[in-house]
Each structure stands twice: as structure tokens, then as C-alpha cells.
# Entry
Amino acid sequence: MGTLARRAVWLLALAVAPSAARAHRLDEYLQATVVSIEPEAIRLSINLTPGIEVADEVLARIDWNRDGLIAESEGATYSELLRRDLTLRLDRGGMELELVAATFPTTAELAAGTGIIQLVFEAGALPLAAGPHVLAFENRHFPGVGVYLFNAALPRSPSIEIARQKRNDDQSVGEIEFMLTDASAAAGR
Amino acid sequence: MQTRARFALAVLGLGLALAGPILSQTPASPTAQIATAAEALLATLSDAQRSQALFRFDDEAQRKRWSNLPTGPFTRAGLRMGDLTEPQRAAVLALLSAALSPEGYTKVMAIVGADEALRQSTGRAMFGRDEYYVSFVGEPSTTAPWLLQFGGHHLALNITLAGDQGTLAPSHTAAQPATYELEGRTVQPLGREVELSAALLRSLDAKQREQAILGFQVRDLVLGPGRDGQAIQPEGIKGSELTARQRELLLELAGEWTGISHAALARAKRAELAANVEDTWFAWSGPTETGKSAYFRIQGPTVHIEYAPQGRDEPATHVHTIYRDPTNEYGARWWAR
# Structure
């Protein structure tokens, strides 16, 4: 598809978008994080859905050359922008996040306020002792318009037990208190 | 024996003799009833329509092709209601009537009616009763697994049948407008969910409320469309902390989702939920005053339900919900290797 044609598709999406978006979130940016704590890895699965009225601002940070396509490098750059807006700490020690999977919708879907960006980050391994631990998370991405969800996934490993979850009012900041009952499970990762 | 008594016995004997063959017949199983209705629909289709409606059972893309979004932003496959003839549409409705409980059928039609009201109020063709799709993943059968899908904007029914067993998980119900007028009466497709959740909340004492009410906003579904295969840690108040009456209310509330399916399948699911009710959680986020817009969640070993008002309208004008079974999405327990 040529550049002009891609622009036409995008403009068409913008033209028809209001009716679809009217039924959905308009001026907010839904950012839903599910945190999976397992002995071998801590994984953040983040779904991002910009509403139509903020989609252009989000798109401007993704589709740098405005060609109506999201190149792999543009997706990686945006993922890095998001990563810098996230903080993950385990027992007060900072954890590095690495992008392990990324799926971007089309620019037309994003422009229409219906596209979902799906990113998965994994935290570097840290040695853990058996006993209680606290994983703290903060999301500062688009703070003015962000609608945040933050939840612990149900652990698959029997050696991890989620004890308690705490969040601030808008869920941009949260903590997961968990228990590692079998340190060998974590050591073997 | 008196003549009258002998006459009565004779009539009873004749009645039993005539009724014998009928009484000895086993009533058709839910799957047989639904498969028969599905075959009746398929018989009305042209070859081209048939190939549009039928997908292979191993077609994972079609199995997961559902959304809260309207046509346009989301592309569905299958037969579009607006493209069918009147007898074909009637056959689809007969199939839904066979596959759903009477209450479930009424709820589904009310959701479609809300979208039709949205079409009329906005004038947009992407909404309305023509924009719903029916499809089959696998051939209708009384023995082999197959999936009946019916959905469109704010509705996704995924009914997997495998022999005598069936599940509705995952399915999505929603409504916008949440309340509308039809032929002089007020329709609230998800009204029972509001009433029953409010009744359960009202029944909680101060200590129970402290456990059930989350101290933060939950402004959307956590495990909505696109979150297949995920499960989150339960929160709120556990069923073991509820009274017997409160547990009944919790099951009744969950029944607004599980009870959408064929009554026999719904009964089996309710029995399963009742067996696990002590390990089933109820959580609430938002205002507690009756009539105010609030989020709630039910989570148990084999159930995940969320009700999430969209936006900040009071009362809610737009609601999304999700129903899942973390142990048996798409009935995989019965067929996945």
C-alpha cells in the first residue's frame, strides 16, 4: 500500500471513528497490568487502549514518520518509552524490565480509539529466600489521562502464595505481598 | 369393587398403556435439542452461506474472534443477521431459543434491542440488530465437541457443547444504553445484575463490607476480551465468610451469567458453583448507595465474573461484563489434549 493510500485509510478511520468511540472511552488511556509472579520470572502483561481523543497524542509517540504504519523499530521505541515510565521493585530493590513480546494494532484502529497495544515485560532474575516478599509497581505513563488497572495473576506455581494486594486510588501505584514457600523453586530458575 | 371404581381403574390402565411408549422415551439432551435446531438453520442455507457459517473445530482464530466492539472497529466472521432471509433469521432465533434458557434468551434479545436503540438514536449503521453474527466452530453433533457463536456489539456468546456437557465460558454481555424504552415499557438488559448485587451488598454487615469493598477505583474489566487464559488473584470477601442466605444471593447473582445457557446446562453449572461457594469471592468498588454506578466481581475455582460501568455517568448508561471459567474456557477440559 502506498503512502497516500495509507494516509487515506487513516483519515477514513478518523472520519468514521467518532460513532464507534462515542460508545467507548474517549479522553482516557486505559492501561491494564497483570503481574505474574512465578519462581522462574516476574512478568508484566500490559494492555494499552488509548481513547479516541488521546489517540493522536499516543500515535505521535509511536508512528514517528506518520506513514500510517507501525514499524518494528517504532514499536520498540514506544515500548521503551513506556518502560521508562514504569518502576518495579522487589523488596525495595529496583528490577530491570525487558520487553519480551509486543503486539501493535493498526494505526487506523488506534486512531479509532479501539486498538489495543499488548506488551509483555519480564524482570531480571533475583535470588529469593523463602519467606515473605513485596513487589512494588508504579506506572507514570500518560498520568493526566491514564486509567490504570493493576492485578496479581493467580500463581501457577504452588511455591508462590499471594498474601495481599494494595493500590492507591487510581491503581497507578500498587504492591503485591507474596510468600515464597520453596526457595529451591526460585533458585532453580 | 364398585362399578365406578372398576371404570376408573380401566381408564387409568388404558392411560398408562397409551402413555407407556411416551414415558419410556428419554427426553432429548440439551445438546441434541441445540444440534437439531442448528441443523434446521444449516438446512436453510445456500452452499456459500454454509461455508461462511462453518469453521473447523481446530480454528483457534475463529474460536477467539469476539469483542465488545461494533462492526467496523472489529471484523467478525460468520453469517450476518442483516444478510439473512426472514426464514433464516427465524431459524437463528429458534436456535438461540434452543441453546438458551428463557431468561437467557430474553436477556440476549434485550442486549440486541439496546444496540438497535443505539442505531436509531445515532443513525449509525454499525449498530443495530442486523450487525450480529452466527457461526459454528465444528459441525453440530451430539457426541463430538463443537462451538456455537452468536455476537456483535456488546454481546459475545461462545457456547461449547461436548456430548452431554456444555459451557458458556468465555462470554461477554453488555448494554448501551443500559436502559431504554420499547413499546411503552422500560427495558434494562442487565437490570437483575444491578438489583441482586445491590441486595448482596446491603446484606453485608460492617465487618463484611470492610472485606468486600476494595479501597480503590476499578474502572474497567480486568479480564475482558483479549485476556483469554489469564486468571487473577481473588480479592474481596470469601464465601466462607458469608451467611447461608448471602451465599444463596451470591449464587443467584452468578446465575445471571451462568443461567443464560440452556436450563439443564445452567443447573449443572449452578450445582458446581454451589459446591465451591465457600471458596468463591465477592468484591465491590465504587459507591454503595442504591442506584449508583459501581464495579463488582465474583471469583471462584470455576468462575470469573466482572461487571464494569464505563465512564462516570450516574446512573450508568453503558456497562460491560465478562463471564469466564478459568478451568474450562471454550470447554477445553473436555476436548483439549
About this structure: Chain A has one domain: 3-187.
